[in-house]
Amino acid sequence: MIVGAGLKREGVPFLILERANCIASLWQRKTYDRLNLHLPKHFCQLPYIPFPADFPEYPTKRHFIDYLDAYAQHFAISPMFDETVESAKYDQACGLWRVRSANVDGSTTDYLCRWLVVATGENAEKVVPEFEGLDGFAGEVVHACDYKSGKGFSGKKVLVVGCGNSGMEVSLDLSNHRALPSMVVRSSIHVLPKDVFGVSTFELAGLMTKWLPLWVADKILVAAARLILGNTERYGLKRPAMGPLQLKHTEGKTPVLDIGALARIRSGDIKVVCGINKFLEEGVELVNGQILCVDSVIMATGYSSNVPTWLKESEFFTKDGFPRSPFPNGWKGKDGLYAVGFTRRGLSGASADAVRVAQDIAEIWNQEIKHKSHAVGVACNRR
Known about the structure:
The protein is of the alpha/beta class. It has helices at 2-10, 25-29, 61-74, 165-176, 201-211, 214-229, 244-251, 261-267, 346-370, and strands at 83-91, 96-103, 108-113, 116-118, 125-126, 140-143, 157-161, 180-184, 191-193, 195-196, 199-200, 256-258, 271-273, 276-280, 283-286, 291-293, 296-299, 303-304, 337-339, 380-382. Strands 6-17-7-8-13 form a 5-stranded parallel beta sheet, covered by helices on one side. The longest helix is centred in the C-terminal third of the chain and has 25 residues, at 346-370. It comes from Salvia splendens. Its cofactor is FAD.
C-alpha cells in the first residue's frame, strides 16, 4: 500500500494483486484477538499519514486495521482481491514482466508490466516444523496464525512451540484464560523490557545506535534488562552471547519485548521446557527424556517467504526468498524488479524501502513523460 500511495501521489498508474479478499490480511485474519502493537505508534505509522492523535500510544489490533483501511481509502487504493500470482517472469523480447494470476473461480489472468514490485514479504506462509510422531498425536495442533484466543483452552494443558514474541504472548493469553501452558525453548533468546524507566526500549535503542557502536548499545540494553527483569536464565531463558541489536542486524532475530509473560513464568503459571524429541499419542517426549502430557499444541514457529514458488528469477532473490543484498540495499534489482517487506526490520524497514521504490519508479515515469517516450502507458496491462 505504501508503494501504491507513493505512486498515486506522483500520478503513476499501478495495479495491486492481492490473494486475500481484504487489505492487511495478515492482521485481519492471522493474528490473535489481544494483539497490540509492541512499539509506540510513531514507529509504526506509514509514510504520508500519521496515526490519529486520539489513538493510544500502543494501538490495538482494531486500531491498526482501521488505520490501514483509512490509509487505503485516502489514496483510493483498490487492490484486485482474490488473485493469487502463480508465476512472474521477465520477457527479454518485449522488455516487460509477464505475470499470471489465478482467480477464485479457477480461471487465470495474464498481465504485462514495466515494473514488478514484490511485496509478499517475510510472513507469506506459515512454518510448521516436521516432528517425529506428530501425525499420531491425538490432540489439537494449531499454528499461531490460526489462534485467536485462549477462551477455548481453559483447563487444558497446552504446549506452545516457540518462544519469540508470538510464543510469549500466546502463552500469556492462555494463562489469562486459565489454561496450563508450557513453552518450548530450544535455543537462547534475548528478553528485554518493553520500556526502560518510561522510555520505549525500541526508541532507546534507536537513540543509542545513532551515537554508539552496536556492541556498546547492546551492553547497555542487556544491563538494563537485568536490572528491570532480573536474571532470565534462572527460568530457562538463556541469553545469546551476541547482543540483541547485533543479532537483529546480522541474523534478523528479533528480541522479545516482555509484556507480562515473564512474571507468569516466574510464578510457574507458564512452564518453560526444552526442545521436543518426538510426539506421542497424548503428549511429547522432550530432548531430556521427560514425557509431557498435553491436550493441545500451538505452533508459534513463524513464517517464511513464498517468492521462490512463483518468481522465475534467481539473481536478485535467494532460494529462501529474500533479496541477496541486505538492508538498505535490497530494494532494487534489474529489469524493473523491486522488493518491499524483506528487511527483517518491521514496518520501519518496509516503509523505507517502499518510499525508495515509489520514488525510483516515479522518476523514470516522469522522465519518459517529459521526453514523450513510446514506453509511456505500459506501466501495467491486463491481457
